[in-house]
Each structure stands twice: as C-alpha cells, then as structure tokens.
Amino acid sequence: MAEYPLWHHRAHLPVPSPLTPPPPPTHTANKLPSISGAVAPIVDLNYFISGQAYHLAAPATQHPSTVALAYQLANLYGLLFLVGVGVLHSTSEPRVARNYLIACAIADVGHLYATYVAMGWEAYMDVGAWNALAWGNIGFTAFLLLNRLVYFSGAFGEARVVKAGGKME
C-alpha cells in the first residue's frame, strides 16, 4: 500500500493501488482560494466587487457598505487560510482534520448557493462566459467539494496517524 501525506508529515493516507495517484487536494488546494480571496480586494477592489456579478454593468462608484463587505469578506478568507494552516498542520488526529473538512464541505455548498443567488441561473450556467471570479467561486469551489466528498467516501483509503518511528496506528 502506498502512503501519501494528508495534512502533515505525521499523518498519512494509505492508497491501495500499484499506481501513484496524487494525494487528495483537499488541504493544499483549500489554501489557494483562501489566500487569493484575502488578497484580491486589496489588489483591485472594484474588480473584486463588480466581478462577482460580471454579467451586470458595474456602478461608477462603490457604496461604502459594499466596500466594507468586500474587505470583511477578504478578512474571512484570510481567517479561513489561517485556520486551515493551523488545524491541518498542527494536528495528528484524523478526526480533527475530517471535522474541518466536513465544515469546509458545508461552507462549499453555501458558497455555491450564494454565488448562484448573486448571478442568477442564466449566468451561473453559462460556463463559457465566466470570468476569473466565477471560475473561483463556482468551478474551484465545486472541485474542492467533489474532492472532499470523494475523501469522505473512503476512495483514498482510511486516514491514519503515523507515530514516531514510522509505525501506523
């Protein structure tokens, strides 16, 4: 059985296959949208706000509450990044990581729904017209959710803790 790191050098995920598939991307890929979501409003606030509903004309100026909400959202993305790093890189308990991933999967569904409500059915389903934010909000979030569901199904094997000396528990 091949072993792949799940979230830390002390925890490994056995994969029953002679092939060498990559480890599940649930922890590494989780950090990408979090950190980019935290930085995006700082880099280009107007694009971050208007890009959420790219199919509508952007207003000439942003309302102060819209700006506040964008920066608050960026702060939450930053928090998600820090919690992910803190939880997944400091625990040796598969149950802790699993609970974190369950919370992320629930949040994925909420994120997909919130994006759908903001964009509407036509724009949500018009994949060819998506901008970078739509790909992040829908495409990448759906990718993460799918990987979490596959992980929960046990397709990657059972998560185990590797104790000092390399023995599996």
From TrEMBL:
Coiled-coil intervals, chain numbering: none
Keywords: Membrane, Transmembrane, Transmembrane helix
Pfam families assigned: DUF7704
Key word Transmembrane present: yes
Residue spans crossing the bilayer: 69-88, 100-121, 127-146
Signal peptide (residue range): none
Record-annotated DUF7704 domain positions: 35-158
Protein name listed in UniProt: DUF7704 domain-containing protein
